[in-house]
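Ops channel
N.P.: pipeline sanity check, posting one input/output pair.
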C-alpha cells in the first residue's frame, strides 16, 4: 500500500501572493455543537483557521453562539434553531462540515437532512452526522468526505468495530463502494481512498492523539484546505497528513496528557513550509 506523499505539502502550499485577500482562501461553514458539545465546533473552527481558511463560520445552538467566540473572536458564530436559519450561510460557504458535537436530536436530524439534500459544494461528515447517516438508506455522493473512526465505520457497514479492525483495508473499500466520495478511516495508520487514487496510508501520528477532540480538529484541517482550492481528493490526503504530523510535533513533550488544541501552533507551522527550512 502506498504512503501519503509528504511532498504534497510543498506542492499545494506555496507562499501566498502579496496581493491576496481573505476571499481568496475560502469560507468554511461548520454545523454542530448541540447542548453540551459546543467545544467540538470550536476545535474544528480553530483548526480550519490555523491551516489558512479565509473565513470560518459556525452554525450552532443559539445558547452557544453567544459565548463561543469569546475565546476565538476570529470565528463567526451564528445561532440556528432550524434548517431555515442556515440557508444563507450554506449558500455562501465554499465547504461545509457537519457533525462535530451535532448530537442526534430532532434539531440535528433536521440540519443534516437539509445539508444532504444539497449537491452543489463539498461536504464533510464526521461524528454524529455519520451515526445519523448509518440509520438512513445508503447515499452516494462524489463530492463529500466521510471520516469515521472504527466504531462509526462499523455502524455505517452494519458490522462490529472488531470486524473493521480485523481488516481495515477491506472496510475502507466497502465504505467507498457504498458511499463514494473520499473515505478516511481513522486510527493507527489512517487510511484514505477515493475514485482518484487507491488506498493510501498515513504513517505519521501517535497514541497521544487518542483523546477527545482530535477528530474535530481533523475535520477542520481538511475543510480549511479544501476551502483554499486544493484539488478535492488531494486536500483530504494532505489534511490527514498534516494533522498527524502536527500530532507528532505536539508529542515531543510527551504523548500522555496531549489535548487536541495542542496541535494548533504546529498546524500553522506545517502549512508554511517555506518558513520552517
Amino acid at each position: 500500500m502506498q504512503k501519503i506523499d509528504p511532498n504534497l505539502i510543498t506542492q499545494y502550499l506555496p507562499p501566498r501572493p502579496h496581493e491576496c485577500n481573505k476571499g481568496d482562501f475560502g469560507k468554511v461553514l461548520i454545523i454542530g455543537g448541540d447542548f453540551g458539545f459546543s467545544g467540538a465546533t470550536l476545535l474544528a473552527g480553530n483548526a480550519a483557521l490555523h491551516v489558512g481558511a479565509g473565513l470560518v463560520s459556525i452554525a450552532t445552538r443559539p445558547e452557544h453562539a453567544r459565548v463561543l467566540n469569546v475565546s476565538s473572536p476570529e470565528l463567526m458564530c451564528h445561532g440556528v434553531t432550524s434548517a431555515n436559519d442556515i440557508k444563507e450561510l450554506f449558500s455562501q460557504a465554499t465547504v461545509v462540515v457537519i457533525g462535530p458535537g451535532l448530537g442526534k436530536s430532532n434539531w440535528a436530524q433536521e440540519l443534516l437532512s437539509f445539508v444532504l439534500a444539497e449537491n452543489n459544494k463539498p461536504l464533510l461528515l464526521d461524528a454524529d452526522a455519520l451515526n445519523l447517516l448509518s440509520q438512513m438508506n445508503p447515499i452516494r455522493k462524489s463530492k463529500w468526505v466521510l471520516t469515521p473512526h472504527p466504531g462509526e465505520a462499523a455502524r455505517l457497514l452494519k458490522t462490529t468495530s472488531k470486524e473493521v479492525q480485523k481488516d481495515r483495508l477491506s472496510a475502507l473499500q466497502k465504505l467507498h463502494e457504498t458511499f463514494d466520495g473520499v473515505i478516511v478511516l481513522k486510527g493507527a495508520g489512517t487510511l484514505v481512498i477515493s475514485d482518484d487514487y487507491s488506498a493510501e496510508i498515513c504513517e505519521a501520528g501517535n497514541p497521544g492523539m487518542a483523546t477527545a477532540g482530535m477528530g474535530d480538529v481533523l475535520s477542520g484541517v481538511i475543510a480549511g484546505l479544501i476551502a483554499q482550492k486544493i484539488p478535492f481528493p488531494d486536500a483530504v490526503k494532505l489534511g490527514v497528513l498534516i494533522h498527524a504530523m502536527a500530532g507528532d510535533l505536539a508529542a515531543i513533550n510527551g504523548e500522555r496528557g496531549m489535548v487536541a488544541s495542542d496541535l494548533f501552533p504546529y498546524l500553522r507551522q506545517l502549512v508554511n513550509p517555506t518558513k520552517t527550512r
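N.P.: looks fine end to end. The chain has a mean pLDDT of 96.
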